[in-house]
Design a protein that fits this description.
The chain is 94% helix and 0% strand. It is an all-alpha fold. The longest helix is centred in the last third of the chain and has 83 residues. The protein is rod-shaped, with a radius of gyration of 36 Å.
Length: 209
């Protein structure tokens, strides 16, 4: 009776464990890597405006490339979750806005030799505010992923406890059934043996007479 529920619980545990290990944990790591890439972009573009050093521009390009890669990875991981996908789309849009209206103007001004204009753009705080908008979305995305992981772990624990109870009940039922079977077996075998023994004794006694 308990066999099918137990199998269903095992399947649920397996699905939940797979979601955590193959989707949610990698997604959380990807968001962390995305945040790191964004921070490198923000720091590099500010340094570039101040120094006009192409090494800083290279760091910005590397951070941007890494951010794009992490966003693509997250899209693959979260394809089956509409809510997380919506947050991911908002993050991607905010990043495009930051690049279009924040970092691009600073980079163009610095490349063109308009260094005072580039510094003024940095001082205005526009780029920094747009960067903070992106980080707000990544923070929300990370919170939602963490919430789902915590919920999945709680579900795992609940299903494991339920499965343990079912297995314990199954074990007790099996022991009880074996005890009943043994009793029936003893009655079914020993009873006829006793009758046979009695008949043999009777025959033996009659033979002596």
């Amino acid at each position: 009776i308990a066999r099918l529920p137990a199998l269903e619980d095992c399947a649920t545990l397996e699905r939940t464990a797979s979601t955590v290990s193959n989707q949610l944990k990698p997604a959380s790591s990807a968001v962390s890597a995305l945040d790191t890439a964004l921070a490198e972009m923000e720091s590099a573009v500010t340094s570039y405006a101040l120094t006009a050093d192409v090494a800083d521009l290279s760091l910005y390009v590397e951070g941007n490339t890494q951010a794009r890669a992490e966003l693509a990875h997250l899209h693959t991981l979260l394809v089956g979750d509409p809510e997380l996908n919506r947050l991911l789309d908002e993050t991607r849009k905010a990043l495009r806005t930051w690049r279009r209206h924040g970092t691009r103007a600073i980079i163009d001004a610095t490349r063109s030799g308009r260094r005072e204009e580039a510094r003024e753009l940095v001082r205005s705080g526009t780029s920094r505010n747009l960067y903070n908008d992106v980080r707000t979305y990544t923070h929300t995305l990370d919170e939602q992923i963490t919430t789902r992981m915590e919920r999945a772990v709680a579900e795992q624990e609940h299903e494991f406890q339920r499965l343990s109870r079912i297995l314990n009940i199954t074990t007790m039922l099996l022991v009880a059934m074996l005890a009943v079977f043994a009793l029936l077996l003893l009655r079914g075998v020993l009873g006829p043996l006793r009758d046979l023994q009695t008949q043999l004794v009777d025959v033996a006694q009659e033979g002596h007479h």
